[in-house]
Amino acid sequence: MPISEWKHDLASHLQKTCAGDVLLDEPLARHTWYRIGGPADVFVSPKNSDDVINVLAYCRAYQIPCFLIGEGANLLVSDAGYRGVMVYLARYLNTITRQAQILDVQAGALLQEVVLTCERHHLGGMEYMAGIPGTVGGALIMNAGTDRGEIGDTVSEVSLLNEEYTQIVTMKRDAISFEYRNVPQLQDTIILGCKLLLHHEEESRLRARRLQQLQRRAATQPLEYPSCGSVFKRPPHHYVGKLVQDLGLKGYRCGDAMISDKHGGFIVNLGTATASQVKTLIDKIQAEVYQQFGIRLEPEVRFVGFDQ
């Protein structure tokens, strides 16, 4: 039986077992940086790790599709939405605590809150993440960063659920391979938080680096429009923006989705773009780059709800 036929019963059960919020048919456009996406059948904002465990265990027991979301900075959600339970971590699971030069950060904490916390406490190592949207959990999964530093550079351990979704376990840094926009050991896991090992740095220097990074992003990226950031991973020895520019695709539109005329590696929402329009542009860039240059572009954006 399709979940849409019994989602009210599902939501009712989760409301009884979850201390957080449970909503029906929540538009996911409200929870993605693209401002695009249809509704999730059930949308849960857990208040604590026990809520996460209870929701995931129930979904697993009854084979209900389930997906965790932070700020949705790197997601393209289909126009049809998500058939299943969407678990939103950023509302409650977002605390940041400090002990000396270590930050203990929950998965739903905003990256920019972490950057500012580090600056206030004279802790260096995260300032190059300034301006990167999203949460710590999402950043960990893809090893988010810039050419000047990645989140994996500071991680000392990651807290996640075991495979049975019954308890929290810790994965130490030496067991994790932080690669370019990929962390194999963290794929298909449920990340609840991490510890960041930082170093002492003068606040004025940290502020200067943060502001320099923000200015750099503003000068080169179309921050005035909703987007997911870089759509594709950078292929070896090439830059996506340059490849797109050489193809003459900057400014190309499909409805209100447009390949940015400021940076060819971005696809922006001019106002009323749909997921299908953005996907059309992604497919076009991939096809033309491969046809012209023989390079296969791998998406950095994650697709949600397209294969349901």
TrEMBL record:
Keyword NADP: yes
Catalytic activity: UDP-N-acetyl-alpha-D-muramate + NADP(+) = UDP-N-acetyl-3-O-(1-carboxyvinyl)-alpha-D-glucosamine + NADPH + H(+)
Pathway info: Cell wall biogenesis; peptidoglycan biosynthesis
GO CC annotations, alphabetized: cytosol
Molecular functions (GO terms): FAD binding; UDP-N-acetylmuramate dehydrogenase activity
A single BP term in Gene Ontology: regulation of cell shape
EC supergroup of this enzyme: oxidoreductase
Active site: 181, 230 (proton donor), 300
Domain FAD-binding PCMH-type, chain residue ranges per copy: 35-201
EC number: 1.3.1.98
Named cofactor requirement(s): FAD
Primary location: cytoplasm
Keywords attached to this entry: Cell cycle, Cell division, Cell shape, Cell wall biogenesis/degradation, Cytoplasm, FAD, Flavoprotein, NADP, Oxidoreductase, Peptidoglycan synthesis
Subcellular location: Cytoplasm
The family this protein is said to belong to: Belongs to the MurB family.
UniProt function note: Cell wall formation.
Protein name: UDP-N-acetylenolpyruvoylglucosamine reductase
Species per Swiss-Prot/TrEMBL record: candidate division KSB3 bacterium
Top-level taxonomy: Bacteria, candidate division KSB3
GN (gene name): murB
